[in-house]
């Protein structure tokens, strides 16, 4: 939610909408009494309610996104710390504390704007009444100026910088984990071939030792006393042979099956966590893309770049402000559809919430 425009960049127009756009009287719907009352209601709502609520929701979304991003990075980087410090209860407490702090910080925003009634005389010597959005004595005070700059630093600069840094670290971590998984899969494949090769060589050595034992018992007994055969067999990790129906074989096969089951389960968990992290990175990049232009749409920030005496700059400033708001709305909508399309758990939770409420 962008800050209110100052008198240098604002215009007093007949029946101005909350967002600053006009409803041309040449359009038939604009002259209806319902439209006139609706615009008046929207102007009052935006001035006394919507402006403060918009700033509150913007701050909450920024800091909650930062918390989620940091939590995901800690869970991916240090899983034991993630399980220890980022439980559901801890996350709920963090969100509640963030909401309470944001509401307390933005309470003065509800007293910064006011609706002013004006009247001007047209060329036909007829008077027209209009409504315009102005700033109260608090909005013109130094306290509001300081609050605006503190808010710009705490809501725009710090969260966006943290999101950029942590998101970049997440990308690096995702890439390193992907490389480790590829190397592990290659090592596992090579390890299977090596085990098969060792088993084949051990069977050949076993067969040769049996032949030597039959042909030259004295030589075989001599080599066995030296421990040559035992050391050779241990180095090659010869598997123990057991009958087909023995309990040892069943235990060994069951342990192999359990290991394979838990290994595949761990792989699926890691893949799901990786997909969730990638989705979060995409959503955060979209959030940053929508928040950075709107962060510089505040009056005190614009006046640092655009001089107040530039009359021709008013149109471009207004266009930039509307473009930043539109881009923020588009990215917010995109994030919702990304979650719905790519996150099955979010989609099922949303369905259960909607249909259960009905």
Automatic annotation (TrEMBL):
The record ties this protein, via Pfam families, to: 7tm_1 (PF00001)
Q: Which GO terms describe its cellular component?
A: membrane
Q: Where is the G-protein coupled receptors family 1 profile domain?
A: 1-339
Q: Which UniProt keywords apply?
A: Membrane, Transmembrane, Transmembrane helix
Concerning InterPro entries, the annotation shows:
GPCR-Ligand_Int (IPR052954), GPCR_Rhodpsn (IPR000276), GPCR_Rhodpsn_7TM (IPR017452)
Record's superkingdom?
Answer: Eukaryota
Listed GO MF terms: G protein-coupled receptor activity
Q: Where does it localize?
A: Membrane
Q: What is this protein called in UniProt?
A: G-protein coupled receptors family 1 profile domain-containing protein
UniProt lineage: Eukaryota, Metazoa, Spiralia, Lophotrochozoa, Platyhelminthes
């Amino acid at each position: 939610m962008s800050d209110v425009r100052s008198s240098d960049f604002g215009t007093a127009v007949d029946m101005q909408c909350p967002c600053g756009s006009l409803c041309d009287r040449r359009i038939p719907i604009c002259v209806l009494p319902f439209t006139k009352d609706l615009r008046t209601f929207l102007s009052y709502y935006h001035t006394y309610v919507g402006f403060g609520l918009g700033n509150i929701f913007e701050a909450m979304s920024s800091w909650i996104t930062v918390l989620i991003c940091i939590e995901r990075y800690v869970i991916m980087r240090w899983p034991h710390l993630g399980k220890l410090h980022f439980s559901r209860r801890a996350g709920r407490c963090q969100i509640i504390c963030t909401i309470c702090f944001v509401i307390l910080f933005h309470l003065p925003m509800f007293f910064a704007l006011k609706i002013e009634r004006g009247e001007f005389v047209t060329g036909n010597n007829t008077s027209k009444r209009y409504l315009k959005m102005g700033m109260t004595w608090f909005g013109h005070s130094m306290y509001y100026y300081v609050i605006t700059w503190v808010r710009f630093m705490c809501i725009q600069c710090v969260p966006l910088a943290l999101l950029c840094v942590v998101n970049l670290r997440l990308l690096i971590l995702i890439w390193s984990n992907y490389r480790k998984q590829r190397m592990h899969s290659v090592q596992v494949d090579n390890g299977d071939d090596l085990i098969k090769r060792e088993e084949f060589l051990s069977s050949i050595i076993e067969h040769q030792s049996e032949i030597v034992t039959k042909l030259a018992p004295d030589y075989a007994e001599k080599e066995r006393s030296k421990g040559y055969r035992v050391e050779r067999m241990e180095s090659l990790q010869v598997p123990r042979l057991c009958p087909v129906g023995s309990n040892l074989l069943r235990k060994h096969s069951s342990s192999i099956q359990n290991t394979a089951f838990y290994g595949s389960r761990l792989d699926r968990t890691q893949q799901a966590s990786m997909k969730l992290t990638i989705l979060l990175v995409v959503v955060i990049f979209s959030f940053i893309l929508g928040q950075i232009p709107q962060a510089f749409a505040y009056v005190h920030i614009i006046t640092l770049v655009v001089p107040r005496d530039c009359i021709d700059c008013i149109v471009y400033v207004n266009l930039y402000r509307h473009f930043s708001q539109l881009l923020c709305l588009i990215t917010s909508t995109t994030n919702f559809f990304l979650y719905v399309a790519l996150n099955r758990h979010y989609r099922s939770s949303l369905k259960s919430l909607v249909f259960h409420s009905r």
